[in-house]
Amino acid sequence: MKSFGVHLFFLVFLASMAYVSVLAFTGTYGINYGRIANNIPSPEEVVTLLKAAKIKNIRIYDADQSVLKAFSGTGLEIVVGLPNGNLRDVSANADHAMNWVKDNVLAYLPDTHIRGIAIGNEVLGGSDEFSGFLLGAVKNVYDAVNKLKLSHLVQITTAHSQAVFSNSFPPSSCVFQDNVVQYMKPLLEFFSQIGSPFCLNAYPFLAYMYNSEHIDINYALFLPTEGVNDPKTKLHYDNLLDAQMDAAYAALEDAGFEKMEVIVTETGWASLGDENESAATANNARTYNYNLRKRLAKMKGTPLRPKNVVKAYIFAIFNENLKPGPTSERNFGLFKPDGSISYDIGFHGLKSSSADSSLSSLKDIRAHGWSAFYSVILTISTAILLVFSR
Questions:
Q1: What is the pLDDT of residues 190-224, one digit of tens each?
Q2: Using one digit for the tens of pLDDT, what is the confidence trace for 99-116?
């Protein structure tokens, strides 16, 4: 726990930045750090992994102390989560919201770069168990953040699944589901006031799985394809993720929020699945995530919003062996528990398990010390320079 003096100085410093807009996602490529597993590395090892991969933006689904302490002083930027189970309490009691922000955000600033709070996850569009508490929780958490002079540092958001939409094809026809509008509109009005984006969990993998007869898998994987045309806007789409994002933009425009930005807070492709999940293969997962990384590196918008650079958090760092549901749910990870990659998508300093001899795992790094780690990085960097100098 930081001293009162340090916190006071920090709050005074933030007050002097009153006109600086908050921006939780400072790059275009981030990753989700799910931890429903009993075989993944410690948070300290995850920091090493993320730094080697040069991934700066991270989302977690709670505010775990061990994670927030491990990220202290690293420069990594993190969005913490208020779980769905906390929404009722935080919505009903502003003091509880204040205590949660103090304990899980203020206590770790400024050393841990907490840049956002996600209020629940995929609350709307399914069961209405928590729908009525979402807006109240959002407002109480924002009020707490604002009173602590953190509102220009910490962004408040909530992520939605595509279940909130109706008629998502073609993209221009998309609107919000009738049973969602009553909750969504006031939420969007508040987010518009505080400058928060619309956060979307978008999975071309799931769209293809549910409608493989009508969706070309190349279209879902960013591979060459004829694509699709939107008859209303006359726009052409060469990949499904862009179409999913523009469907969200169309729904926002229909609801009266044309200027709101859409950020993809989850997207990925499973590398293993059940018998009825034939698209969940390591090759498809590698193709999707490799091509997505190239897509994001272009720093381009979508056909409908060409000036809004696409930003996405990949799901996820690790396979999570304790997640319930079909096999695919446990196999979205880019990395294996030993720190090697599940498949090669070009991260610097990491190799696929088929080339373990070329790179030490995290366990090797711990055993041989940091000097061995830096030697490996230097060797790989030299090789990369030689390749690109030809």
A1: 999 999 999 999 999 999 999 999 999 999 999 99
A2: 999 999 999 999 999 999
What distance lies between CA 12 and its chain's CA centroid? 31
> CA 237, CA 229: separation in Å to the nearest integer?
6
DSSP character for 270? -
Amino acid 222 reads F
Tell me whether the omega of the peptide bond preceding residue 324 falls within 30 degrees of 0, making it cis.
no
Contact by Cβ (8 Å): 18, 152: yes
Spatial separation of the C-alpha atoms in residues 312 and 29, rounded to whole Å: 5
Sequence-ordered strand ranges (E) for 236-317: 236-237, 262-267, 312-314
Active site positions, annotated:
122, 266
Provide the whole-model pTM.
Answer: 0.84
Q: What is the DSSP string of 60-78?
A: -SS--HHHHHHTTTS--EE
For 240, which DSSP code?
A: H
Q: pLDDT tens-digit profile of 161-179?
A: 999 999 989 999 999 999 9
| Rg of the chain, C-alpha, whole Å | 21
Q: Could you give the CA distance from residue 249 to residue 151 in angstroms, rounded to a whole number?
A: 25
Distance between alpha carbon 140 and the CA centroid of its chain, in Å? 23
Residues 6+ apart with CB under 8 A from 337: 37, 39, 40, 41, 318, 319
Question: How many other C-beta atoms lie within 10 A of the C-beta of residue 181?
Answer: 16
pLDDT tens, position by position, 287-308 = 999 999 999 999 999 999 999 9
CA–CA separation, 106 vs 102, rounded Å? 5
Give the separation between CA 10 and CA 152, rounded to whole angstroms: 13
Return the pLDDT at 21: 52
| Backbone phi and psi for residue 166, each to the nearest 5 degrees, phi listed first | -130, 145
- Whether the per-residue pLDDT at 389 is higher than 70: the answer is no
Q: Does the pLDDT of residue 355 top 90, yes or no?
A: no
Short-list 68, 82, 153, CA closest to 111: 68
What residues does 201 pair with on adjacent strands? 266
Query: Alpha-carbon distance 5 to 11, whole Å?
Result: 10
